[in-house]
Amino acid sequence: MNGERLKVKSIRRVALGVLLFTFYFSPLVMLGQGQTGNLGHFDQRLFHFGIQVGYTQSKFELHFSEDAALRESLQGTTSYYAPGFHIAVVCPDLRLNNWINLRFLPGVTLITREVSYSWEKSYFAAHRLAERSRNVESVYGDIPIELKFRSVRYGDFRPYLTAGASYGFDFASLRKNRNQTNQSIIRLQPSDLRYTMGVGFDVFLRYVKFAIELKMNFGLLDLKVDDPDVYIQSFNDLRTRTFMLSFTFEG
Q1: How many CB atoms lie within 10 A of CB 119?
Q2: pLDDT along the chain (251 residues), means of 10
Q3: Which domain holds residue 26?
Q4: DSSP 172
């Protein structure tokens, strides 16, 4: 539990740092309107391409079952953040006007989510083989569509906000695959739909534009596939939540 709190605090600190950094420079951005340095006409292009790589932290949003019989054996079920990796292509970034771009970012995200089980002492004493946690791994093919809201540019720096939606298909989904062994598994629906929000800033280098971005993805669909064992019946629904720190290179 303490580890989970530390992870959440770390993520919040990163988000707060990016926001403070952005707003701290806002007065300078306004004063610097019209000033350019490297790649002075880069953002005037109709479209451009690039690559994005990122580090993720993901968990499930779940609700502990209200079933009275099940609560006699379990005290609770919790999901903890676990690390992952993301790679995508900017294909393309389309300029709509001076302040808004439309971005297509098809890519692949490898994520792991940990589910932890707290058993009643008497139940665990009688079932020593009961699992205390399970990892659920997914390999998502993502198709995100986002709007990028850019501020005015100050020198080689330009903050921005993003908002959009993303469809993901889990290639590692075990929804149709019953156990090949006798081990229990948590099966997921293969398709997921999410809404996204992010904040970041562009840095104009000599030959490329580099961006650092913090994004939050919130799953809208219940991914749970019902199975009769206690590990799956202990929660009512599963929705993915992912924090992503990404780095983008555009040329």
Answers
A1: 18
A2: 52 54 46 63 91 97 84 85 96 94 97 90 79 90 97 92 97 64 74 97 94 97 87 88 97 87
A3: 2-250
A4: T
Distance CA 174, CA 191 (A): 12
Indicate which CATH number applies to the domain containing 199: 2.40.160.20
Q: How many residues does the chain have?
A: 251
Count up the domains in the chain and report the number. 1
Tokens standing for 104? 């297509």
By CB atoms closer than 10 A (0-12, 13-18, 19+), residue 52 is: buried
DSSP 52-66: EEEEEEEEEEEEE--
Instruction: Tell me the C-alpha distance between 210 and 55, whole Å.
Output: 16
- Side-chain half-sphere CA neighbours of 165 within 13 A: 5
Rounded Cα gap, residues 122 and 117, in angstroms: 14
- Using alpha carbons only, what angle is made at residue 80 by residues 76 and 170, rounded to the nearest 5 degrees? 110
The one-letter amino acid at 196? T
